Model the fold of this input.
Amino acid sequence: MAAEWLIFFLPLTSFALIVFVLRPYPRWCGYVTVAAIGGSLIVSIIALIKVMGTTEKALSIPQIAWLTVGNFSLSVGLMIDSLTAVMLIVVTGVSLMVQFYSLEFMHGDRGYSRYFAFMSLFTTSMLGLVMADNLLVLYVFWEMVGLCSYLLIGFWFERPSAAAAAKKAFIVTRLGDFGFLLAILLIFANTGTLSIRELFLSQNVELLSKAGLLGLPLLTWVLLGVFSGAAGKSAQFPLHVWLPDAMEGPTPVSALIHAATMVAAGVFLVARLFPLFEHSPQALTIVAVIGGFTAFFAATMGLVMFDYKRVLAYSTVSQLGYMMLGLGVGGLSAGIFHLMNHAFFKALLFLGAGSASHATGTYDIRGMGGLRRTMPISFFTFLIAALSISGIPPFSGFWSKDEVLTDALDSGQYLLFALGLAAAFMTAFYMFRLAFIVYGGSYRGAAPAHSSHGAHGAPRESPWVMILPLVLLAIPSIVSGLVNLNGDFTRFLEPEAHFAGLNYTIAGVSILVSALGIFSAYAIYGARWLSAETVTHALSPLHSLVFNKYWMDELYQKILDSILLGLCRITDVFDRYVVDGAVNRVAWVTMKTGQELRQVQSGQAQSYGVAIFFGVLVMLAVYLIVGVR
Amino acid sequence: MTLPELPYLTIIIFLPVVGALAVVLQQTTAPGRAIKLTAALFSFLPLVLSFILFLAFDSRTTGLQFVEKYPWIPRLGVNYFLAVDGLSLPLVLLTALLGFLAILASWKISLRIKEYFAWLLLLETGVLGVFASLDFLLFFLFWEVELVPMYMLISIWGSGRKVYSATKFVIYTLTGSAFMLVGLLALYFSTGTFDLVEMSQHPIPATVLPATAIFFLIFFAFAVKLPVFPLHTWLPDAHTDAPTAVSVILAGVLLKMGGYAMIRINLGLFPEVISTYAPLLATLGVVNVLYGAAVTLLQQDLKRMIAYSSISHMGYVLLGISALNPVGLTGAALQMFTHGTITGLLFLLVGLVYDKAHTRQIPELGGLSHRMPVIGIVFVVAGLASLGLPTMSGFVAEMLVFLGTFPVWNVATVLAAFGIVLTAGYMLWMLQRSFFGPLNPRHASLADADALERIPLFSLVGVIVIIGVYPAVMTNVIATAIPQLLNRLGG
Done:
């Protein structure tokens, strides 16, 4: 067996060990998880180096037969090409940092062992997802990461809000997965294969290119199904509603699953099937439009939230939109480049939020303030990530964001370019709004603590176990953008692609826009030239629209209650009164008939005689009329 | 693995009856424990034996294995004909497994212990006989044998409107049986045999009745059992009012008698007719899936909810059959096995919750995981298995059904596939309301599952995960039955 299997089996072993052996020893659960994922990271780095050394930029690993039924057969193998190699580094790298951080962050939680079991299972599934060489296997792990997300959002299941959020996340993403499932069925029915490598063969693309419904090619429908799954997972409009609620989970979970890796799985899926997407301009346009719109739309909601993690959550949705936009207008590498950079700086932001809350006992930014003095390292790492996501050079976010914007403009999508630029402004604004409220000014005392860590006195810097991951994540947040300075990253992912390089005009404009965003935040929350209340008041209808998240939760709830549950109610009544009613009616008629006919069975020989007499008469009559044949 | 020549199937089928006799013949003063141990022993042995058969089953050849065939009523050509193939062996194993677990789940029964266990054992024999008989008359006898214990078990040891539910169940099934009997006789007089294998060799001549008419007479009986909309309303009543162990058997294996018989008899004897009416089957399958799921969403009683979800899941069996290809059929057969384990597990769990909390109303539960973490975790696992989460057996079965059916009936498959979203909806909603959130104070002193109660839970979880992770253990066996079933359809 190839050594690369270890990447998958190490965290799986950790999961099994925790479940069957280590559960009673919480500390060990944490250590084993960290060790296993550290091991995966090392093997992943070796795999990356190996892939870089091959000419076809992929490793070939033999498959294992799994299931054969009729004309359906499933072999399981690993697909480690440049895309997977990058994803492996991102997943294992961020996961390692997050697990290490969790050793301290989750300390003292009743569910400490359970937490690391789920985290191991998640990492296993996520690694399986990025290495799958078969769509069905990918779907299996796709659902498994969804399961882990469900379990970890609802980790503190005693909170009704957490239990509700977990269910919502699972069901909303499953709605998207329904489309993905249909796409898989369509692909199998038309090509007879689900192997990803085989799908890219020209004869299979040919088979999928025939005309489908509504004049669109079949391939477009398939890819729209795939994208519906991707949009669910990556929280794209209109399926984004679950992600902000998912912040009910522990903060390291938000960092790993709901910022850096699982939510990026949708982007990864589109990238994985990019050779198919390239054959369908319509599908790519839809990816770009949804992505661009989501980038803008989610950013507006990030402007007004008071919950530290919710601001970051909307920011994640918005950045995922950026990645989709990048895939839609530019190509594989633009989207994945942003995915990679985002994973590092967003994980850093979330872990920083956890650190701030660890010190203050709240996630409400109104209850924080002045943390730059008491938590200097948390502050500096936050600042690096904030500058990175805002697109200020030389931090990583600048390079990939610039690439996405350039590609949007080059492909003639001016509206999407404008949306992206507007989102960039808002991103800078809400990040520095956080900076000034949380880290600037002076400490405003702990609001009622809803963290599990109880009440706190004056905030203190977090212990080194939590700080070290922040520092280690700050490094890629500064430099990971440099890997594509000369187009090396682009050529690694797409050997034939043309690398345009930095467009100085666009770069200048986008830096200006970001700086303007930072300046506006400073004007309102730093220098307070304008009071936030005045601005809110002046924009009151807009503010309440955005603050209430465009009432989409309420709208969905209405649809669910009135249409779906309404239909169910009708069915239920129909079942009880019509279907079962008919059954009971038949029974009643039978009984009634029996009761009536019982009168005939009177036991009086005379009446029997009369009946026999008439019976014979009837028989005679029949005999006379019909005759005997 | 070669086994010594023994009439294994006879032994498996009749061990529970022997056990029932052993139970009945115990002295009236015998302690309940002795009775329970006897019952456990006589249901454990068939389980061991059927597991041995499963291991010894040669999945490289197709067709029947472990055949026992002796003349029984020579004048009518009736044989005592037992055998299993890849379709029936998993169901025999399932019955033996759930039969044993049902005995364990009845350990706390205190009312009329002797009778209870005797009926339960007799029930197991009836069901095992149905799956292993290849003579139609024998099959019919076993089919009817199962009714008496069911009636007693529900009406005496049940709850709620137990007599109503028991009567409804029996009359409904008997009505179906009446139709089956007519079909059975028509078949006998058309072909001159009761041998199901022989009958399946050639098209049924229309000497007595047209083949289509016989097909539907028989189909009706099986449709009641599966159940197929609109013949399903006995099911929620019977399941809800039956004692836990009986619900487990009822949902776990009795429903499968319907699905199994459809494949064995409707498909096996009438491939031409079934291919004409496959669109009807597909439609009924979709209706079952969606209608069942819609009604499930609104149920407030845990047991009733699981019962309705069974209707929905049985729709996938119909759908898989309607594909009339190896993938769909394997999916249908696997779905029967996996649904048996998953729903069996769910009913066991509901039983435990009811025993401890004394209510099954979802709104009266809440936060149970605090007090019963093991039951909570296993309930989550069972719920996820039921909603078709990968790495659990339900996913493989549903996926095979979809993959097999989609090329043939694409619209029906798309509609039925939407069922997975609804299933996620009702399962997770139920879990949220019953097990998560703050603990309902009235349940502050509940106990978790004890060691004895954990055995059935963990063993079923094990089976579900093993098949989910490596489905070939089951599909390789099922595959051996497929060529015979489809050979007259040219596949």
User: Anything to note?
Assistant: Confidence is low (pLDDT under 50) at residues 447-456 of chain A. Chain A is about 70% helix and 5% strand.
